[in-house]
Amino acid sequence: MAGVAATAIITDRFVHTAQVMAQVSGRHGFPFVVIAHPISHNTDDVLRAKAETAVRQCVEIFVHGGGRTG
């Protein structure tokens, strides 16, 4: 039985942290989505653009196995 497809969405400030967490969790190479930091105080348009970026990266991970890895 296959597991449930999953990824993480993080801001670029936390890439190193995500890589370390993936490694210590035994998930070296776990793919994750990276969007621009920060999230707080963004306008609706900026948040929408970041969300669209995240969706494109999620599709890349889920369909093609791409994305950054831990």
In words, what does this structure look like?
The structure is a single chain. The chain has helices spanning 15-24, 44-64, and strands at 8-11, 31-35, 68-69. It is of the alpha+beta class. It has a 3-stranded mixed beta sheet with strand order 1-2-3, sandwiched between helices. β1 (8-11), α1 (15-24) and β2 form a beta-alpha-beta unit. The longest helix is centred in the last third of the chain and has 21 residues, at 44-64. The mean pLDDT is 91.
Low-confidence stretches: none
Strand order in space, largest sheet: 1-2-3
Termini separation: 25 Å
Question: What structural class should be given to the helix and strand makeup?
Answer: alpha+beta
Helix fraction by DSSP (H/I, runs of at least 4): 40-55%
Strand proportion: 15-25%
Global morphology: flat
String of helices and strands: EHEHE
Mean pLDDT: 91
Estimate nothing, just give the exact number of structural domains.
1
Instruction: Give the tally of β-strands.
Output: 3
| Major β-sheet profile | 3 strands, mixed
Helix segment count? 2
Rg to the nearest angstrom?
13 Å
